[in-house]
Amino acid sequence: MTVPTVLVSMPFMQVDRPSIQVGLLKAIGEANGFPVRTLHANLDLAARIGPAYYRLLAEHRGRQVGDWLFSVEAFGAAAPDVDGELPAEFADELAYLAGESASVRDRLMRTREHDVPAFLDALVDGGDWHGTGVVGFSSTFQQNTASFALARRLKERFPDIVTVFGGANFDGVMGLELVRSVDCVDYAVIGEGDRAFPRLLAALAAGTDPADVPGVARRDGDRVVATEAAPPLDQLDDLPAPDYGEFFERSASLGLPTAETWLPFESARGCWWGAKHHCTFCGLNGTTMRFRAKSPQRVLDELVGQARRYHAFRFEAVDNILDPAYLKELFPALAAGRHDFQIFYEVKANLTREQLKVLAHGGVTHLQPGLESLSSGVLRLMDKGVRAAQNVNLLRWARYYGLHVGWNILWGFPGETEEDYLAQAAVVPHLVHLQPPASAAGIWLERFSPLYAQPDRFGPQRRTFEASYRHVYPEGVDLDRVAYFFDHEFVDALPPSAYAPLAKAVADWAEAWSGGPPSLTFRSTRGFLRIEDRRRQGHDGTYTFHDTLADIYVACSERPTTAPAVRSALGLDRPVADVEAAFEQFAERGLMFLDGNLALSLALPATPGR
């Protein structure tokens, strides 16, 4: 006996990327002999309300607007905000959602009262649900209530359908509480589903109890019964490539463009740095931090296969950190094979110039390096394992090799000082030729992060679930157990005014790029250096240096280095103090970044491609 299964990705999954979760589970299910199809239902809502508006709603940080939009359809009369108070309470924060001819509240209320019910009706009435045995929902960030709303309607129309939920929103205690409190959830997979999902389908097909499968939870009266999850999968090479066929077919049928689509792929799970030093604010990986990676050849074969299958060249790694082994095997092979891919990866910020060159030549065009600060003191508080000079150096060589860097500046860490932020604000004007951060703001408190899980380590704090959750879930749901984001305040926190100079400097940085990126470049030969400064419009300048000063500057260009190391490398017969004095001269002109005992030249080589 087989169990026809539909795996659904509901709003607010991004519209420009297929769901790797449902794509992978479809391939796993079919490899185990079960008929599985996918439904990227998020595309239907994007087509209904417009992709631009949908993308705004799909922002997963901030208030729970996406889940609020589906709350009434998910919970009916039990929904806590039937009258629509959320848009008014958070009006200033949600101003970006206003339409051309409608206020934020009017636009959101129309979406909730008209578009959402019509969207759900169309899914149920127009879908091929007859004969379906299992409907599975993958839920990450704000996909919960949309999934509950569809599950509720399906179970009303087709009572024999079994619903299965999983994904990051069901990790740990969050999943157990949702199983307990949401009646349209029959089973949930807590943790990785690669083995639990096909075993659950096998149990349903055989008529045995799925709750005996490792990693599966279900309700039993007023309590939740959950089996211990199996150990995380080690051999990632054994996994099939995700099946994205339905995503492209559905996009085409809805008239949605796919030219900008990035195909998600997975080359590793967990975080090798987090397993040693968990960054204090990071809540990713939940209960599966241990790092595992596919072999370089397996990744190469998958990229080539998916490109041929879907006529796509853009790939987005969902890994939380790059496997260092790929720098020696995968990316050189991609470069040697002349594959015309564009690839996104998350990386650690301690990459060298040569490593960034390897990535660029291997097809990486976008990086998310987790820089987060330009202060080594604050980075230590984060447990990042890098210094500010390394962050700046990554920005330098990423600019040189044409790599787009996605990063943010964060503040709000226990133990920080006002000077940490004044110093960053002072140095920012010298960095405007490098890619600016997307934002500068306080940290979010995330479940599973050390700041959340180890409160005694970081000092007294006041915290509660993020305020908009109470507009989403009924009274019977324990929000302290369901929430992923929390509002918090450390008792000894700095006042908001401490961050204002840095916020202003970052805004000016972004403004400096609005008319095209500024530049700071150098040309050199033995004993002579010329720097062209085009960082401030209307204040262009040229610096020339000779002999030892020129050599010192060039010696600090490759990577952050110390005065003793420069003295040794150049074979100087003068004291280290003279080298340090040269560092200070360069820094006073905004040409060098000083970070404790480290010095880093800020200008980039004018000669490209080296």
Helix content: 25-40%
Mean pLDDT: 96
Q: What does the main sheet amount to?
A: 7 strands, mixed
As laid out across the biggest beta sheet, the strand order is: 2-1-3-4-5-6-7
CATH class categorisation of the largest domain: Alpha Beta
Total DSSP E strands: 25
- Quick one: overall form? globular
What CATH architecture of the largest domain do you see?
Alpha-Beta Horseshoe
| Separation of the first and last Cα atoms | 62 Å
Number of separate domains? 3
Computed Rg: 26 Å
Question: Would you identify the regions where 5 or more consecutive residues have pLDDT less than 50?
Answer: none
CATH topology of the largest domain: pyruvate-formate lyase- activating enzyme
Count of separate DSSP helical elements: 23
Strand content: 15-25%
CATH superfamily of the largest domain: tm_1862 like domain
Helix/strand class: alpha/beta
Features:
single chain, 610 residues, alpha/beta, Rossmann fold, pyruvate-formate lyase- activating enzyme, Arc Repressor Mutant, subunit A, seven-stranded mixed sheet, five-stranded parallel sheet, 23 helices, 25 strands, globular
